[in-house]
Predict the 3D structure of the following.
Amino acid sequence: MTPVEERVRVRLLGKREQLAEAAEQRREQRLVDLLRRVDGALASLEVGDWGVCTVCHEPVNEERLEADPLVKVCLECLSNEERQALERDLEAAARVQRSLLPPARFRHDGWEVAFLWEPRGPVSGDHVDLVRPQRDTEPLHLLLGDVMGKGVAASFLQSHLHALFRAVAHPEVPLGDMLGRVNGLFFETTAGSSYASMVAARLFPDGRVELANAGHPRPLLADARGVRPVEGSGLPLGLFAGGEYATRELQLQPGETLLVYTDGFTEAMVGDEEFGVGRAAAALRRASRLPTDELVAACRREMDAFLAGAPRGDDLTLLALRRVG
């Protein structure tokens, strides 16, 4: 079996166990029918014809199969009614995903944050979230993550990470332990078949920033010394059941800015050449005195100028975090 087929087989076996138990308890026809469809997909995996369109007999798109392993017809063979229904579903998924995002620009307790979030398609595997403190003595939690892959399957996992982060984001839990808990829960639900990178931050009223990094591109800090990457990173979330995540503390002065981004920024490519961390740092240096919303827009324009009309190959998120006094 291919890696995709093995991941799908593990997911289907888990789903079959859940469905069999539910069907036995509730004896509903729809559960029985779904169980039969899962059994059919497992049988197709065994004989080697899973993922082949029953109409044109060509392979179905892998991303679509990972999102729904029970798919039997490729997009090209869908009827007009089926395509319209799929488009409506994608539009609804995009609306739900956008509703989970915080405001694109906000201030809180001496901090200003602005971000730019641009899916490559209708939905995204990039994720931004914040959890406001319930009491004045508690820090603000901020998150930027990137799920492996693109499109619908990645967006499902992104929403799952959103829920996990909010479930464990408590001020009494050390930030590294918080990422460790998210990693364990994410691994349990994906069986190690997917992973995500993430930067989690705690923002304190005195200008302190506590960071924990799970395999994510290094943030860039613009301060009185210039622009430089913030070192320190652990393994991405979901690769292994256990993981330890170190924390890094920064002290930002008024006007100093931290730029956090997904790899759709630095790995944007023209031919074999990437935009890269060097160009990203230069873009931040030139824009560091701009308001945060204009800063992320300026960095985006520099990436566009580098691409010179070449298509962007990934989701893109840029987030600027500034101490404003």
Observations:
- The chain has two domains: 3-80, 96-323.
